[in-house]
Q: What sequence folds into this?
């Protein structure tokens, strides 16, 4: 049943985070479908991506051909894609009072390029200030799962990109990074243990 049209005074910005295969894309889709049915104008988007320019940057970032990519170049490309994503898509939707659900945002950069690659968290934070102007999601849902289970899920569907090809040790560092972020910002980041069924997590 379709709900009555709901109007918000202010947009709501929600991000989904977590390592590979935790169910971010699945849950982002389910959440946006749920909110749309409830009558809310909802934008479902993803990083890196969301706009034509950002999708082109995504292709460069995730191509398995690019095994020579420098970590700093990688970081700057993620930030470049994010700037374009906010400007063209996220900010305009929030200004119209819509709900924006993004599959990954700044926390991914802290987790992967910071905790995973070992780039200084201070530097990442300074660049984030430039890229986002300190725009933070109102709510971040962190899906947490054993690295092995997540990678196995994605292997089953033959999802292999440049980041997924990194070794288990890298993904474990990323997961630990995410858990540290959740401990530092418990008000914004809600942790959901993800070895459960898709519907249970959605509820
Ligand atoms: N809770 C779950 N239990 C089992 N399999 C799941 C669950 N959530 C997602 N999956 C499956 O795992 C794979 C990866 O899910 P996806 O949502 O693409 O993860 P992510 O976007 O975090 O990489 C998909 O095949 C999806 O159907
Ligand atoms: Mg995904």
A:
């Amino acid at each position: 049943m379709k709900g009555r049209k709901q109007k918000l005074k202010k947009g709501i910005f929600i991000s989904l985070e977590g390592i590979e295969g935790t169910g971010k894309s699945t849950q982002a889709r389910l959440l946006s479908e749920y909110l749309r049915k409830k009558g809310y104008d909802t934008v479902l988007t993803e990083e890196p991506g969301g706009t034509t320019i950002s999708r082109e940057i995504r292709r460069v970032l995730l191509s398995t051909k690019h095994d020579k990519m420098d970590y700093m170049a990688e970081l700057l490309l993620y930030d470049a894609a994010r700037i374009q994503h906010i400007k063209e898509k996220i900010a305009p939707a929030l200004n119209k009072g819509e709900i924006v659900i993004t599959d990954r945002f700044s926390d991914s950069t802290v987790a992967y390029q910071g905790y995973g690659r070992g780039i200084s968290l201070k530097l990442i934070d300074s660049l984030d200030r430039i890229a986002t102007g300190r725009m933070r999601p109102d709510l971040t849902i962190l899906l947490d799962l054993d690295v092995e289970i997540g990678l196995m899920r994605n292997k089953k569907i033959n999802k292999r990109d440049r980041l997924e090809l990194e070794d288990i040790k890298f993904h474990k560092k990323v997961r630990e990074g995410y858990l540290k972020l959740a401990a530092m910002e418990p008000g914004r980041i809600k942790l959901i243990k993800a070895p459960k069924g898709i519907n249970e997590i959605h509820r």
Remarks:
- The first strand starts at residue 12 and ends at 17.
